[in-house]
Design goal:
heterodimer, A: 3 strands, B: two-stranded antiparallel sheet, two-stranded antiparallel ribbon, 5 strands
């Protein structure tokens, strides 16, 4: 039932995506920033993530996802999230799939992929993106899972610095950023460039690079 | 002289559903906008009439009515598009994510940071066409030019 409703309101997401593509043209696959330098432990996590992707998407993310039914896509996301959480030693207590309308009700824009909830330790994913038969969008859903899991990792690292291999200055930068987070709904440039988003975006883009 | 009262602007942004920190961060960025665009922004704030303003082939109206940005985000995005078109367009293509974090959790993080907490001084001066901050100024000074 929820999925049926989500399909009906999915036109909003598609219309924004099509408008942007029409105005600025199709873009290349997301790539990590040229200046992004993962640490040795980040590289290990990235390699582990890439192995998970290769296992779950043997024909590539886009082909595998497009071939699956809606229920099977959701099941696949649940399985991959559980495996990432175990590998990265992070907490993901719930994984929920929200329609664009539900995301907007929670203060997000209509063009939102998902979020990480630090209070309940959960991830929300835009179900409209997941239901589209659009390879770029489906790949972005998997990217979002890694991105939100990285936020969970950042949060664990600032609370348990002795248990996570992150250098002290980075911990301080992340912790300060949590206290003055820049909302994507107000300042897209500030949002993209702040430490925790820069790190999460590049970590996920590096993990999915060329897969 | 065209200007916007800081507290009125902050109150407006908060009326859109954003918290105090969101509003402060947005105003900090608005101060750094291109001077010409800042004038357009100030005029819009007083009249609430959508400006006929376009950068590359994206107009203010496109961003608000079709891409569904709020007006503050649309102005800040046009500023970015004007200054760094390739990066701005690349960012626009991708859906964003966000984090949900409570004030209580933020307070705990500040307490844990102790003396390492970087408190930002709130600049409450008017936002004026004559005191645009120079974004390239890397001295960290909060003084307006």
């Amino acid at each position: 039932m929820e999925i049926a409703v989500a399909v009906l309101v999915g036109w909003a997401l598609v219309s924004i995506f099509e408008f942007i593509t029409d105005k600025i043209g199709p873009g290349p696959s997301p790539e990590p920033d040229k200046n992004y330098e993962p640490t040795k432990s980040d590289m290990q996590m990235i390699e582990e993530g890439r192995e998970i992707i290769k296992t779950y998407f043997p024909d590539g993310i886009e082909n595998t996802m497009i071939s699956l039914s809606a229920d099977a896509r959701i099941e696949k996301i649940k399985e991959i999230t559980a495996e990432i959480a175990a590998k990265y030693k992070i907490e993901v207590n719930y994984l929920t799939f929200l329609s664009v309308e539900q995301l907007v009700e929670k203060g997000n824009s209509q063009y939102t992929a998902g979020y990480y909830d630090f209070e309940q330790k959960g991830i929300a994913i835009n179900v409209n993106m997941l239901l589209l038969n659009n390879g770029e969008m489906l790949k972005d859903v998997i990217n979002t899972i890694f991105h939100e899991c990285r936020h969970a990792y950042q949060f664990m690292a600032i609370h348990h610095p002795d248990e996570y291999p992150v250098d002290p200055q980075t911990i301080l930068d992340w912790a300060n950023n949590f206290t003055n987070y820049i909302s994507p709904e107000l300042d897209l440039k500030g949002y993209m460039n702040q430490p925790i988003e820069y790190d999460a975006r590049n970590f996920a883009d590096y993990t999915l690079k060329d897969l | 002289m065209l200007l916007v009262n800081y507290f009125k602007l902050k109150s407006y942004i908060k009326s859109l559903g954003f918290n105090d920190n969101d509003a402060k961060q947005a105003i900090k960025s608005l101060r750094k906008m291109d001077k010409e665009l800042l004038k357009v922004f100030i005029t819009w704030f007083h009249t609430r009439e959508y400006p006929d303003y376009q950068v590359e082939n994206l107009s203010f109206t496109d961003l608000v009515l079709t891409v569904k940005m709020n007006e503050i985000k649309a102005f800040l995005f046009l500023d970015w598009l004007k200054k760094e078109p390739d990066l701005a367009k690349k960012a626009l293509r991708r859906p964003t994510d966000s984090i949900k974090i409570s004030e209580e959790t933020i307070t705990k993080i500040k307490e844990n940071l102790g003396s390492n907490y970087k408190e930002e001084v709130e600049d409450t001066s008017d936002i004026s066409e004559n005191n645009v901050e120079n974004e390239k100024d890397t001295t960290g000074s909060n003084e307006l030019k």
